[in-house]
Amino acid sequence: MVVGMNIPDREGRKDEASATENITESIRREKTLTRVHKRLSKQVEILEREALAPHERVNNASKGKREDTGRPSFVEALRLLKRLNLKTYKQFNIVEPILELYPKPQARKFALSHGIRVPKIYGMWRRLEDIPWEVLPARFVIKSSHGGGGISVFPVERRGQNYYDFITSRTITADQMIKELRLKHRAEATYFAEELLTRPDGNAHKLPDDIKVFCFYGEIGFIEVRAEDGSRNPDSRPRARFYLPTGAEVRSLPRPLMSMGRDLSPVSDLDYVLEAASKLSRSIMRPFARIDFFSTNRGAVFGEITQNPGHTPLLVTNWDTRIGKHFDNALGRILDELRDVGELDVQFGNQDE
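RE: above sequence
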């Protein structure tokens, strides 16, 4: 035995190792928090800038103090469309034709007319009290023809006398569904039951992911795969993956305040999604429409057409500009085609000199 040497016992070595692990974990967490803080700080800057009025965001050019015409902006284009559809047109009792596709059954009929896959329909009713719950299959979705954000959508599975609600992960009764649907009832609404689609992996315990395609008169700007984006569940954790039309994934999510859905499957049936979305978008003939699909075991299946996304899909500045160019170019192509058929001609009067 060597006198004077302090040899740590086994417990002491464990304590030292544990302390080292704790320090390493603390450093790792600090670095993670620092990255998150930087990312959120940048997003806050974007939100603060977007909150400014347009004239407050305009910078004068360095030469001649000429007013900057502004960068292309997808967000500002959507604000214009939403304002026209929801406010201005109503003042003149104008119904924008694209809004005819707002009711889900009408959008389904439109997609079907172009040969696009659609879900099966089990029945449609004007009154909630007329739904024959007992004859519906074990798994189905009850929807209102009007409403978005998953508020009036109930994907359920029969369990005994009640139903399991896949959005809230709770058991509910038919009467509870009727009560909640009635809270959001609109005079023009109808109610229908459609098939509860199955995920590509066959997992019957999870809903299919949403495939949201941002279309610009036949061209695809970008694609989002989203999950848990329903408004009926306050505990949901909305998240997304973001793709280019080539199928390449954008690793840094361009949408602020949306979590990266690393657990989500990649966009499926890409070629079909691109072809179907492009065909429907050109047939709508508007500079922007969002065409939604479900990712299922029989390929992408049409969901709905969204003309006015409920929450402006805010993008970080460089992506807002990039996607804004898609909108501007789509509008230019539409006007070019209208000019070619004489619909943009200037109308001269019949007076001569």
